[in-house]
Amino acid sequence: MARGYEPEEFIGPREASEERERKTQQPSRNDESREQVREEPAQAAESKRTVAERQGLQVVRGKIPLPDVRIEYDTADGERARVDIELATSHYRGRHLAEKVRAGFSICAHASDVSNLRRVLDQRELTAEILSL
């Protein structure tokens, strides 16, 4: 592979979503314990932060955005690295695109969509490099 990088594993969006759901699912609860859950939103937020951190993701507006593709690789120095990629189209809503940018994803788009996506980001005062395909 180019520049000494060698992919370790591919985790698609379905696998990432299933993993996230599995890790955040709560065991079945009776009525009394449901009351406890309603009283402890801070614990739920902390649980999301913990899951996101374990997966190398961020919590944005109370959600854990998932990239379209995550590439994990070993560098030439033997260090583990990863890049999260979102393939954006001109149909993306501003809020959705903003979440992906705030999550730190690399944004890729077809050349014909780049100017529209740039306008959306400018309106939200966000800066991100949009890689043209």
Average pLDDT score: 80
Relative strand content: 15-25%
Alpha plus pi helix count: 5
Task: Flag low-confidence runs.
Answer: none
Determine Rg (CA atoms, Å). Answer: 18 Å
Specify the overall morphology: globular
> What's the number of domains?
1
Arrangement of strands in the largest sheet: 1-2-3-4-5
Structure description:
With 133 residues, the chain is of the alpha/beta class. The protein has one domain (2-132). It contains 5 helices and 5 strands. It has helices at residues 13-24, 31-39, 41-54, 94-102, 114-123; strands at residues 6-11, 69-74, 80-88, 106-109, 130-132. A 5-stranded mixed sheet has the order 1-2-3-4-5. Helix 5 links the parallel strand 4 and strand 5 (130-132). The protein is globular and about 40 Å long.
Features of this protein?
133 residues, single chain, alpha/beta, 21% strand, 5-stranded mixed beta sheet
Task: Describe the protein's topology.
Elements: E1 6-11, H1 13-24, H2 31-39, H3 41-54, E2 69-74, E3 80-88, H4 94-102, E4 106-109, H5 114-123, E5 130-132
Short overview:
Helices cover 41% and strands 21% of the residues. The chain is α/β, with parallel strands linked by helices.
